[in-house]
Predict the structure.
Amino acid sequence: MTRESLRSSLPRAAMFRHRLTWRMLTFGAGLLFVTSAGAQAPPRAAGQAKPPAAANIQPTPAKKMVLEARAMELLKATSARLAAAKSMAFTAVVSYEYPSQLGPPILYTIRYDVAMRRPDRLRVITPGDGPASEFYYDGKSIMAFAPKENLAAVADAPQSIDGALKVAYELADIYYPFTDMLVEDPYAALTDGAILAFYIGPSGMIGGTKTEMLAWANPAVFLQIWIGAEDKLPRRIRAVYSGDPLALRHDMDISNWQIDSEMPADTFASTNAQGAPRIAFKRPVEVSPPPRMQVLGREKPSKAVPAQTLAKPAPKSP
C-alpha cells in the first residue's frame, strides 16, 4: 500500500499524496494499551490505606482488532458503485496540515477536477493552490502540462487507467489522493492490509448529503470515511498516518459527482498542451525538512520539491 509498492502494483488504500503517517495511539477499538503491571507505585504516605493486593489488580485487556461486517459492507457498496461506472467526474478538494516553525500546523488546500471514462481515458485539472497543472491520458500516452510555463511532458502508457497511473508514478512521482477510486478493483485497493474497520454512525453534515461514517485502518494509516447513504459514493475521507510524530491530518472532500454522463472525445485532450514545448518526465528531488521537523528527529522530509515545474513544490513554512 506504500508508494514504493507502485513499482510492482498500483497503490492500495493510499488516499493522500503527501504521505505522512499516524501514530499508533488509541483510536476506536484502540491500538496501544498501557497496563499497571509494569508501573512502579509511589511511596505510601503515613496513615494512607494499603493498596489492594496485587492479585486483585487486573491488567486492562487488549481489545481485539475486528473488521465489522457493517463497515466492510459499506466499503463493498461504494467500491461496486465506482467499479460499475462507465464514466465519472467529480471534484476533490484536499486539505492537509503542514508544520510551521512555531509548531502549530498550517492548512494548505489543493483542488482537483477529475473526469474518467473506462477503460482508458482520464483527465485531472489542478487549478491551485500552488502551480496549476493538467494531466491527460488518451489510451496511448500520458501528458502532464504546466499551463503557466507552457511546458508539457509526454510518455507512452498501457491501454488501461491502472497502467497509466503506474507509469505516471514511476516516471515523475505523479500520484493522486483519489487513485483508489479510479482503479479497476476499488475494493481491493480500499481494503488492502485492513486490521480494523467499524461503523460510526449517520451524518448529514457533509455537502448536504446523508452519509454513513466508518473508520478503517491498516498498520500505516487510519481513515475515517463518509459514504453517501443512498448513492453509495464517497463524500469525505480523513487520514492520519503512522510515521508522523505530529499526527497531522489530511482531508479530502469529494463533490459534484457525475456518474455515466456523456463525455465528448476532446474532454481528454488539450490543444494548448499538445502545442506546448516538450520536456522530459522527472521524479522530484528531496530537500532538507523544515526546522520543526528536524527538531522532532525525522530523517526524511515529509515532501519533495520537484526538479521542474510539472510537479508541485512543497509549500514554505512561515
In short: The chain has one domain: 3-24+64-295.
